[in-house]
Amino acid sequence: MSVAQAVLQDPRGRTLEGPRMQVEISTDNNVPGSAELNRWAEEELRAALSRFSDHLIRLEAHLSDEVASGAAGVDRRCVLEARPEGKPAVVVTHFAGSVDEALRGATRKLAGILDRQHDQAAHHKGGDTVRYGRSANQG
Length: 139
What we know:
Layout: E1 8-9, E2 15-16, E3 22-27, H1 35-48, E4 56-65, E5 76-84, E6 90-96, H2 99-122
Parallel strand pairs: 3-4
Antiparallel strand pairs: 1-2, 4-5, 5-6
């Protein structure tokens, strides 16, 4: 678990500073939860979701192996739970062949949901319309 004020960089090399969401990474008994894995996962999440960091209080990632036998297939799972400030938690799940693919897939799903929630909150009646390009109330 980390409540970091550390300076991180996103994949494009931009510095990510400012208020930080709390990030917690957990694994089941079948996924080795090394410090390196936790550090990588936290950096991936912070970089991919940095535009939401002012609105998210907490972000939890749970990485697991659904078929503990080690057989090949789509058995790695990532469950992400985001807790936006003043709103209900958002939970997504993604299955993939590896832990990193599962984390990245779940992150894309979560970012899409958070984008839609933000757009719905920002755009309300009285905004531009499809037909007229301006609000119908403005004449």
